[in-house]
Structures are given as C-alpha cells and as structure tokens.
Design goal:
By secondary structure, this protein is of the alpha+beta class. The chain is built from six helices and eleven strands. A hairpin with a 7-residue loop joins β3 (30-34) and β4 (42-47).
Length: 210
C-alpha cells in the first residue's frame, strides 16, 4: 500500500494537495502523480520500484495537456516538467507529467490507476484486465461483490472510476468470477445495464473529466 503523510491524508486525497509526500514499503511500486487541469481526477502512474522502501515527494500541477499544449511544451523544454520515462529516484523533486493518453502507460511493466472519490486505486495488469473485461458490464454488482468478498480497492488490483455520464461506480478487476456468480445468485443481484464503454474509453473519459 501507499502511505501518505497526515497532511496529504487530511486534504481528502491527492486532489486536494499541491504537493504530495509518500512512502512505499518494500517490494512494492512507487507512485508518480499528475493532475489534469479540471482538478477532479488524478492520474497515477506507478513504475516497478527497487526492493527497498522508497520515499519521495512530487508536486501536483494543474496544466491540462489538451488545452495548454504550449505551456506544457515550454515547461518540458525548461526542465521544470518531466515526461516520465525512467525511475523516480533519479529526479526526486521533479514535477511529473503523465496522462492516460501517454502510450507508455500501456507497458506491462507499469501500473495505471486513478484517484477516485478520494481513494487511490490501481490495477496490476492493464492489458489482462482489458482483455477479460472488454466491455464494462454489471458495474453496480461488481462493486458490491468486491465489498462482500473483502477484495478491497486498497489492494491495488482494480480500477474504480466514477463515470458521471452513467451515474455508477465502474470497477474493473480480475476478480474471482466464480465467486462473483455465486454472490449474484445467492444475493439476488439484478443485472445492471451493460455500459457501452471499453476500459480504454473509461480511462479517456475520466481524463477528459466527463
């Protein structure tokens, strides 16, 4: 898990902060953070860390790369803004820039997630999840099933986003499908309307702030 300092935790998550301090325990990934210009969602990029605890601090910025391309390009050129490619510890005080449209995020060595409703949620295998859940279906039931089986979002194996256009919390995860079906059968959960959105489309929708 990622342990935030008291100030960060008290600011209702990363979205309420200008600067984020964090500690990532041994054998986990460390976190790099950027915030889109709308300030409502934070895009998280995690890269495999070393087998030792990592501590660091990142500045959260409010530039929207879609609307402020010149400003982004200028800050990249000046070295104030870093398009992440390498290890975080090389530039521990650098501002980090990453969006879900960055093709590097598709790398299987990376983990991608979002700050959703004040909670940090990540997925372990974006490509595997995209393959298994090509269409986001049963969104409400999946949320409930995960809670029922104790597979909490803090385990960093899910992506939880608020798709405001649909009014549901969509959870995508490689959860135990058999257990989920048993839960649906025993609890009498009704099938929700399938969301006509792929995982990639949901990522893009969150970044756009729909």
């Amino acid at each position: 898990m990622v342990v935030f300092d008291r100030v960060t935790a008290g600011a209702r998550g990363i979205a309420g902060c200008v600067e984020v301090s964090f500690t990532v325990p041994r054998e986990t990934s460390y976190v790099l953070v950027a915030r889109p210009g709308n300030g409502e969602q934070a895009v998280i990029r995690c890269v495999r860390g070393e087998l030792r605890p990592q501590e660091g601090r990142v500045r959260v910025f409010g530039l929207d790369p879609r609307r402020e391309r010149r400003a982004v390009a200028k800050r990249i050129a000046s070295g104030d803004l870093v398009v992440l490619e390498g290890r975080f510890e090389r530039k521990p005080d650098a501002t980090v820039f990453a969006t879900a449209s960055d093709p590097a995020l598709a790398s299987p060595a990376d983990r991608v997630g979002f700050l959703a409703q004040g909670r940090l949620v990540l997925d372990d295998e974006p490509r595997e999840i995209a393959r298994r859940f090509r269409r986001i279906r049963y969104a409400n039931e999946i949320t409930e099933a995960r809670t029922e089986y104790g597979n909490e979002l803090d385990l960093f194996d899910a992506v939880r986003v608020r798709v405001r256009g649909w009014g549901v919390d969509a959870v995508v995860s490689n959860f135990d499908e058999a257990a989920f079906e048993r839960f649906r059968a025993t609890e009498g959960v009704k099938d929700a309307q399938a969301l006509p959105m792929t995982l990639t489309e949901i990522f893009q929708a969150v970044v756009r702030g729909i």
